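A common beginner's mistake is to predict each chain separately and then try to dock the pieces by hand. The better habit, illustrated here, is to supply every component at once so that their relative placement is modeled jointly.
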Amino acid sequence: MTGTRSHWLPDRWINHAKRPGVAYRAQINHNEMMQGGRLYRANVLHTPRPDRFEIVERGYVHVDAQGYVTGVYGELPAGLGECEVEDFGDTLLIPAMNDLHVHAPQYRNQGMAMDLELLPWLSTYTFPEEARYSDRRYAEVMYRRFVRDLWRHGTMRASIFATIHKETAELLATILDEAGMGGLIGVVGMDTGCPDNLRNSTEEVVNDTLSLIDHTSGMPLVSAIVTPRFVPSCSCHMLTELGKTAQRYRIPVQSHLSENQGEVALVRKLFPDSSCYGAVYDRFGLFGQTPTLMAHCCYTDGEELELMKKNHVFVVHCPISNCDLGSGIAPIRRFLDAGLPVALGSDMAGGHDLSLFRVMQSAIQMSKLLYARTEGEWSFLSLSEAFHLATKSGGAFFGKVGCFEPGYSFDALVIDDSELNRHDDGLAGSAYTVRQRMERYIYLGDDRQIVHRFCQGREITEPRLSDL
Amino acid sequence: MTGTRSHWLPDRWINHAKRPGVAYRAQINHNEMMQGGRLYRANVLHTPRPDRFEIVERGYVHVDAQGYVTGVYGELPAGLGECEVEDFGDTLLIPAMNDLHVHAPQYRNQGMAMDLELLPWLSTYTFPEEARYSDRRYAEVMYRRFVRDLWRHGTMRASIFATIHKETAELLATILDEAGMGGLIGVVGMDTGCPDNLRNSTEEVVNDTLSLIDHTSGMPLVSAIVTPRFVPSCSCHMLTELGKTAQRYRIPVQSHLSENQGEVALVRKLFPDSSCYGAVYDRFGLFGQTPTLMAHCCYTDGEELELMKKNHVFVVHCPISNCDLGSGIAPIRRFLDAGLPVALGSDMAGGHDLSLFRVMQSAIQMSKLLYARTEGEWSFLSLSEAFHLATKSGGAFFGKVGCFEPGYSFDALVIDDSELNRHDDGLAGSAYTVRQRMERYIYLGDDRQIVHRFCQGREITEPRLSDL
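With all components supplied together, the output reads:
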């Protein structure tokens, strides 16, 4: 039933990781790369490893003509005389944000309707809003706002739930592609426990997913992802066929896992012979048989954790959502200790905030509450660990994305934080270090300080809104 | 030792609740009040009671010449022909924010240095920074930035810890008074377990507090508050004399209580004969003998809770700080059920954010985590409850502050949230209600949307920064 299980080899999933850095790197040698391209100068920060920031003050990042980083330099590198240099002054140059779990059609509900927990919240607020996305005009207004807001907050790549509606899911892909941003978009499959106007058949969701693959085939950074809503809203037939589709077309999977105690109990009741919630996805070939994102994992433990590790399933940690919906706190330290891949997600509109910087804050805060609850046994996330989750760790799902090591896509933000630190002017001994400025931006900054955004080497300007 | 215990009668604490509304209301009859003054028109929202917002769409608030509200009206009230009307259009008109716990001299550390928990954090980051406030020039730059940022975030009144330095604490009072904003300011007392350059004697802190009372005597909205840092940093002699000072001069008290497990254990060791941490303050007359604010209370329970209730001690809930420092989650639902007065505090720089709107968010989120942990036994805070904490409940410490009922000080914010909701334009059936707009502002808004600020009836313009 689950099809052929293969080891998870990120570089081989070329469909979702379009133009992966590794494949590209093989085609061209270093000297050729250093000819041409561009140099960007600023205070460069990134996290090749989670345990600390690598910082080059007033350094240079060289980006080749295809949009890949060739290196970070403390001094102007030799042999780059032909290169244009763009000097961003005393700003921070950091990798762009990757949001690995977000519901585009909940845009209107952002920051409201948070008086219920997960299951009643879905039926009361979420489903009625998603039903509106059969209307192309409505979807265009909202999806353009959504993409503009991703851009505003410095998120250059996202893994996105659309709705059951193929036509508007394709529209979302077009909008994201036109903006020059990257992402995975899923037509949602749901045929159980949902209102009639939000129900699709197995045949529909499979065909619509294939149609989305076709629709995005010419898009360099946007592609399709198999998206069963979650176990309680899908029949076994739908789960079976979605698993087959993922494997046949070698495309990734996204869904929800162990978010809420009520939901976990419901799945246990629906599948009493499965050892855990994750094992249900696994039996249908939706749990790491192709690259897989599972959002939340608040109650993942024991066997489920082991299965995720074995199958290299990504945990997408959505701490703001987990607070806003009263779900609980995911044990991220345990996942990291076990070597699981972990990304961050806004889960808008379960979470009220699209900013991955706020998600980082929340991830650190939640880890500190677990630190308090375990009386210090579980260390809390450091700032560089949280930053790594939002950049390189999450970016890995898109290929070589999320840091400035050679071969990585130049997805970047330029942060002009001068207004946040102006009181240091002229006060002896009180200037912030670059590391402190990064921390202060993450905690105190917002979209006002993001002055340039790049995705795959291209500067991304503000996406246009609907003319409607 | 504890001096004379009296019942807590807010209206009689005239020193800290300067020009209280009740006293004022007794002097003048309704008709006289309605002559003159000003009318403000907008969508009016406030929370006279915590369980719901009172909303008057496109309503009027009448404010008399002394800055007190006389009433909220749905239609232009009769007999107000002489009154100027200021129409703010389709904005939200709400009470201003009250921050009942904030450390002004930690301004520079905001949003950084959060890799330690309370006790090592104090010695590593906080004390060295506070030592700089012996320098008047440094203090002026930083305190002016701090007051400007309170203003920016819509906080019109605050209860503030300064440092041990009298001269710069007085400077802070002057800056706040010049801005037209309200607050209580404390010269911090600490003589134990602190560096030599941050130690004052009992005589010094008592005299400096009296000096601050004198300094603020001509200020309509700013006064002094007795401020022992917390039990572990004060000798019995200092606590004794500060308790006596509070009662002799009838001024309020602020300190910290049961923030962190390590701190609670330390106090238990220091005072093994006291039944709880709060009982230590109580034996020194610093626990409700005059109006008292106790920040945090994460581990307050049983006898301590009963003592706070009996003495009408305010809990100041600082959820952002409690997360940032890994302290734990205060059981606010339990406090509210017991009838304790509860306010909100930013606790900057223990907390990274000065915005009380963000503190509201965090308070709701933390209550949802307790809801999850108690499997629904403890209901989470509703939006109106959180709003009530930041406005009327906290404002009560300053007198009649925090709502628009007759006799209350007109402390208000005008929120132009049009940019947050622009995608509703022209989409049939999708306009947000005023209540939803309020929720979305609290979750999604920031200082950009606050377009007018009032304190005691006066519009407060941006406080000037230092010329230095």
